[in-house]
């Protein structure tokens, strides 16, 4: 275990931003088990609600950015937990197949047994008649994220898929960079994967949301033919 991270931890989050020039703010509170790879969170829209766009396009900010909750096997160094108590920052660009784009940055720190996350989101170019602005999404499919050590931090790449009401999908690409704020040396992992399942409970009412995430880091289970 890591000295500053207990078996059960709380998390508080503040988000502000805009999508297609429509401003909003959200707060979130939750708890999870960093060494088991599970957590839950309740989110409330405090300004700009009900959201005029599908909440799913920002739900990953409440989950995929909180990497300190990922379960890591002993043979994969945990970059995220090593970064505390100082924490880490990340930047993400999400490009949707219909032309919509999200730009996100987050600062994550630790206060006692609670992670504090501050997020800024800017979304542009979402088609007015598309599934995002028409709120026709119903959650994310499970995914496997690629983790690459780069310049003292981590570069992550992920091809994500949103489920659509009535059938079908909306695909997008995630590009994320993580940087530790700690002054001590952080041992970087080798190339590996992170399996992630994010679930939203209930319908998108534009005001309150409940999320659950399970995530685990792993190497490829396929053995190489030549070593």
From TrEMBL:
Entry-linked InterPro entries: GFP, GFP-related
Any GO BP annotation: bioluminescence
Any Pfam family matching the protein: GFP
Domain of life: Eukaryota
Keywords carried by this UniProt record: Chromophore, Luminescence, Photoprotein
Family according to the record: Belongs to the GFP family.
Protein known as: Fluorescent protein
UniProt organism field: Cribrinopsis japonica
Gene this protein is translated from: cjFP510
């Amino acid at each position: 275990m890591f000295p500053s991270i207990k078996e059960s931890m709380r998390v508080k989050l503040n988000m502000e931003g805009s999508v297609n020039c429509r401003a909003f703010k959200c707060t979130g509170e939750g708890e999870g088990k960093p060494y088991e790879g599970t957590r839950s969170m309740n989110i409330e829209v405090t300004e700009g609600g009900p959201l005029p766009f599908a909440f799913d396009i920002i739900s990953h900010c409440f989950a995929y950015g909180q990497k300190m909750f990922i379960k890591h096997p002993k043979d994969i160094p945990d970059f995220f937990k090593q970064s505390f108590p100082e924490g880490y920052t990340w930047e993400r660009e999400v490009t949707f197949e219909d032309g919509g784009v999200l730009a996100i940055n987050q600062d994550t720190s630790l206060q006692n047994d609670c992670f504090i996350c501050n997020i800024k989101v800017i979304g542009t170019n979402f088609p007015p008649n598309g599934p995002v602005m028409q709120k026709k999404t119903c959650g994310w499919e499970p995914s496997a994220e690629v983790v690459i050590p780069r310049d003292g931090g981590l570069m992550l790449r992920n091809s994500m898929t949103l489920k659509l009401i009535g059938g079908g999908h909306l695909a997008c690409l995630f590009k994320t960079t993580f940087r530790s704020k700690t002054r001590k040396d952080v041992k970087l992992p080798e190339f590996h994967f992170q399996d992630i399942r994010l679930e939203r409970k209930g319908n998108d009412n534009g005001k309150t949301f409940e999320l659950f995430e399970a995530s685990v880091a792993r190497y490829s289970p396929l053995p190489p033919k030549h070593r």
